[in-house]
Write a structure and sequence with these properties.
The protein has 271 residues and is α/β, with parallel strands linked by helices. Helix content is 39%, strand content 16%. It has nine helices and eight strands. α1 links the parallel β1 and β2. The chain starts with a strand and ends in a 10-residue tail after the last helix.
């Protein structure tokens, strides 16, 4: 069994988990996942995430935000509601917010506007910023630079960019979240080199479940669904790429996540 792990991205409000969340959480515990950050992607989804956290206070914390895919649904009332949700101690970051120019499910200017609004909210509240970026590095970086001096902390979760992007984000003192993308021999091999130079104090682990099941899993579950219990496969690849033991990577990543989100889950000591 690995040391305690924290999954910083578990989309537990997704329909894929509606029918069997209890056994999903039980399997996570059995795999030494002692805490999960449930990502909010819309206002309604953020509220549902908070409800889950209240039902499982020893295991779950969440974010409150609007994903760039849903930016077109956002308005000033949305920001006010996120501000209200964030008053709860179980909400540990603002987001998932950012820019996604890969799918362009919301117009790019709209994405940028509401990304900036959520960054301002994080600044106002002194909360970490929980970010998504895909195929939007230049504009994303420029927008973050505008607010970075006032942001307490920030993580680019599910980082899949190139080495130049990674270095640019690290230069801004941001954290990077690594998923099972690093286990994908078709499109994630570049991450196996990048993870070698991510400082220990900036590296966190995540599944982004139910997406991005590690392709190194053998046998793979018939459902094809990723879940937090599979985080050890991400740990295994990160440890091998960094030339470190799983115990070392797990202990460091857990400590970093605790400090970043300000949480003390059961099964790990306060830092």
């Amino acid at each position: 069994m690995p040391p305690p792990l924290i999954d910083i991205a578990a989309n537990l409000t997704a329909p894929a988990f509606h029918a069997d969340l209890a056994p999903v959480l039980a399997r996570a515990r059995a795999a030494s996942v002692v805490a999960m950050i449930v990502a909010g992607s819309t206002v309604a989804d953020s509220a549902r995430a908070l409800e889950l956290c209240r039902a499982h206070p020893d295991l779950l914390w969440c974010t409150a935000g609007v994903h760039p895919h849903h930016a077109a649904t956002c308005d000033e009332h949305s920001i006010a509601t996120l501000r209200r949700l964030a008053q709860d101690d179980r909400v540990v970051a603002i987001g998932e917010c950012g820019l996604d120019f890969f799918r362009d499910l919301s117009p790019r200017p709209v994405q940028e506007h509401w990304f900036a609004a959520q960054m301002q909210l994080a600044c106002d509240l002194g909360l970490p910023l929980y970010m998504h970026e895909r195929d939007a590095h230049t504009r994303f970086l420029a927008r973050v630079k505008e607010h970075r001096a006032r942001l307490s902390r920030g993580v680019v979760h599910c980082f899949t960019g190139d080495a130049a992007a990674a270095r640019a984000y690290l230069d801004l003192d941001l954290h990077l979240g690594i998923t099972g993308w690093i286990c994908d021999e078709r499109r994630g091999v570049h991450l196996q080199e990048i993870v070698k130079f991510i400082p220990t104090e900036r590296l966190m682990l995540e599944t982004d479940a139910p997406y991005l099941i590690p392709r190194t899993m053998l046998p793979k579950p018939k459902s094809g669904r990723n879940e937090p219990a599979f985080l050890p496969w991400v740990l295994d690849m990160v440890a091998r790429c960094r030339g470190e033991s799983e115990a070392t990577v797990a202990a460091n990543a857990t400590r970093v996540a605790q400090e970043f989100f300000g949480i003390v889950p059961g099964g790990v000591s306060a830092t």
